[in-house]
Amino acid sequence: MPTLIIFIVFSLIMLLFYWFKGWMTDAPYRKRWTFSKAKIALGCFLLFFGANRLFVSSKAITLIICILFIVYGLFIIYYSYKQYRYYTAKMLEEASQGQGINNDR
Questions:
Q1: The organism sits in which domain of life (predicted)?
Q2: Per residue in 8-32, pLDDT tens?
Q3: Burial class (CB in 10 A: 0-12, 13-18, 19+), 21
Q4: pTM, whole model, 2 decimals?
């Protein structure tokens, strides 16, 4: 499926972007917030990769592995989104105190 391949590549690019951006940030809560966005992109990558493989092959072992990828991707997305929401409030609090302003390189 060409659409899923585009989503796979896009989520991999976003994963790398947020991962490197997280390492470049000095503010602690902003760093955790950025890494949580990277984890969401990782979960999307696993989800789309598993869904794409379902359409390519129809063997039983492939089906089991693809379902595991999809479930694990959804698990990562869910808990990373919870982290993202938690660290959003902390990051805004940190920025209002002046600790996280202009710390990006």
A1: Bacteria
A2: 999 999 999 999 999 998 888 889 9
A3: middle
A4: 0.84
CA 22 – CA 52 distance, rounded (Å) = 29
Annotate 64-100 with DSSP letters as a single string: HHHHHHHHHHHHHHHHHHHHHHHHHHHHHHHHHTTSS
CA–CA gap between residue 105 and residue 21 (Å, rounded): 9
Name the strand (E) or helix (H) holding 13: helix 2-24
What number of CA atoms fall less than 13 Å from residue 97's CA on the CB side? 11
Which residue, 80, 50, 52, 81, is CA-closest to 66? 50
Say which amino acid occupies 99: Q
Convert 36-64 to b/e letters by CB count within 10 Å (16 or more is b). Answer: bbbbbbbbbbbbbbbbbbbeeeeeeeeee
Maximum Cα interatomic distance, the chain, rounded to a whole number of Å: 56
